[in-house]
Amino acid sequence: MKKKLLAMLLALSVVLALCACGDADGTPSGSPAASPASSPAAAPSGEPVPSEPTPSDSAGLSGTLEVWSSGEELGRFVEGFNQVHPDVTVNITVVPNADFIAKLTPTLASGQGAPDIFTGESDYVKYLVDSGFWDDLRQAPYSADTSDVWDYVASVGTDASGALRALSWQASPGSIMYRRDMAKEVLGTDDPTEVAALLSSNDAMLDVAAKLKDKGIKMFASWQDIMNMQFSNRAQPWVVDDRLVIDESMLDFMDMAKTIAENGYDLNVDPWAPEWSAAVESTDTFCYVLPSWGYQFVVKPAADTTKGQWAMCQGSVPYVKGGTWLGIYKDSPNKDLAWAFLEYCCLNSEAQQAYAAEYGEYVSLKSADQALAAGAGEEVLGGQNPFAFYNEQMEKIPSDLMTAYDGTINTAFLSAAKAYATGVLSKDDALQQFKDDVANAYPELTID
Amino acid sequence: MAKPGPNKLNKSRYGYLFIAPFFVVFAIFGLYPILYTVFLSFQKWDGLAPLAGIGLKNFQRLVTDKVFYLSLWNTFRIWLMNFLPQMGAALILSALFTFNKIKGMKFFRAAFYLPNLITAASVGLLFNLLFNGDKSVANYILTGLGVPGAPFSFFNSGPFTSGLVSYIQWWMWFGYTTVIIMAGITTIDSGVYDAALVDGATKLQTYTKITLPLIRPTLIYMTITSIIGGMQLFDVPATLTNVQGDPRKSILTTSMYLYNQGFKNHNYGYASAISVGLFLLIAVLSVLALKAMRKKGGMYDD
């Protein structure tokens, strides 16, 4: 009798344990990676087309090019590149962003097995730009002409001495992506210009949030998304002359975050949580504050019943967030191949137009974006053309405020803002925690 | 006259040759990185610029670094809160399994072991999905049951998050510990039990007076490997929140701290110093554990 009871108990605990295991298998992999897996279209086209008008100076390029990239997207250029340079094999090694620096630095330090081209994402691109491991692209043999590149993109790739170390095929201007149906119901209009006028300052945004709340609608998916926009309000970057600068606007943002959290203007989840992603199809979430890649990776793929109900407009301030830059390793033995590929991705307007038309990604050349702005609008956006909208934003974005310290400092600031917004720490304590964290990460900085 | 000499010499040479592969691999992938880490701990290095020797500065900073001590305390607390229940559960389960004939014992043993086979990173992510947000599974159930105060911001609470890491570690490892202890128990000569039975010992007496002392080597082994593994805890807390040990560093373990100092903040020299400090601490703890468990020293120690 006793044994039966025992067996039952054990069976019960097993069932519980198995339930937990079952969850592990059944849960859709909602990976919080910044760039969701997009099916790589890097299959090299089988037949090189001999009749292709090959530029005479690049004819005869052959060899193997090693590229390390933190995302899959770069591979999408290979097929087109191989039509121009059929004899060049492009080997793209994708290293996840979280491990990228850990894999790259020992390789660069030892010089053994370093790739010809490697990428750098916005969180640490300045660290690589300042390190001097990328060649200056304005010098011979490259002599890059960047007149068609959005200033911001070139400025991020430029180091303190003015040397251009890296370029990008993408640009990532910011936006507020909102629901037209809810805007009409609560604000009386769904026109992007008119909605933008109602969101033209932080206070105005909070007023709208209060109106939405009366109708049972959450204004934001997560207040943490707004942080990237607020960074544009700063007069100076985080670090100036080895001194930490905490701009007044950052303190205002902490209060804004607290207002949002206390009044329940957002879903109270972290970005990339399943609930955050699901808000695309919700009946109670008004907007995402995300840059151009947010449309491509978050809104567009998930919009089904809400197709045509989305639109994008400017918020309280224009901003940029994200992007992947690439540069040529200074001791690469294949600089001619590396330059041919980099030029194809970052400076060839036709290649970028074909790429952007296929994948909907906003690109780094003005002429390509302008050509695409003339095209038809997006079905998901109710006919709005995102390229036209983002072109306007690129004209307005403030100067480049990126530093080599941004990745760590942004995370530390978000942590402190969260502690204050959720009422765990007072503002002074939260700020002290932020300063301590920065001092701990970068002891060489002066902190007041 | 010259015959026997070379033969003997050859034999000893072959011996070295046969054990060489392990030592070569260990020297390249184990010893060299360890020594290089010690070397780096006396340098200032951002990963790309040339090394700069700065003597003991990294260690001076280490002994006054509050975050380092906090991370040590976090790691130790998470380990202890997982180790004690884990040993308790394993001792009870192994006793049940070995002293009772339970139907499907092998199945249960395998099922308890199962969580150990899942990648720790997936487990961290899985538990994040269960508890993150007002509409998470946990909050959905609690709200449905009408629990006052629900939904909860689970990951805003340091004690909860820290406790959750301990629980996950327990859940993943108690099956493994059970299996090892069962293996230890089966090596005990059944004659000893028969003698105890004849003398009229109760089951409890048999367990505490015979089984436990006889499996002490197994317990020592489990404790020391658990200390070493536990003090290096990284994957579960790193994937559960944001690698910074949020909320407010409550689950920032020493390994995460050294990872952030090295690979996030590019202070490779200081990260190496943390790693050397952690190594010394684990060595000391292991010796203490060994001494403590051998204190009553008996004939069965080896």
Automatic annotation (TrEMBL), chain A:
Segments of skewed composition (Low complexity): 28-49
The UniProt entry, under InterPro entries, shows: Bact_solute-bd_prot1, SBP
Name the record gives this protein: Extracellular solute-binding protein
Q: PANTHER family per the record?
A: ARABINOSE-BINDING PROTEIN-RELATED, DIACETYLCHITOBIOSE BINDING PROTEIN DASA
As given in the record, the signal peptide range reads 1-20
Keyword Transcription assigned to the entry: answer is no
Q: Tell me which UniProt keywords the record has, alphabetically.
A: Signal
What are the boundaries of the region Disordered? 27-63
Pfam families attached to this UniProt entry: SBP_bac_8
From TrEMBL, chain B:
Q: Which InterPro entries match?
A: ABC_transporter_permease, MetI-like, MetI-like_sf
Transmembrane spans: 14-35, 78-99, 111-131, 167-188, 268-290
**Pfam families, alphabetically?**
BPD_transp_1 (PF00528)
Which keywords describe this protein according to UniProt? Cell membrane, Membrane, Transmembrane, Transmembrane helix, Transport
GO biological process: any one?
A: transmembrane transport
Localization recorded for this chain is: Cell membrane
Protein name from the UniProt record: Sugar ABC transporter permease
State the organism of origin.
Lawsonibacter faecis
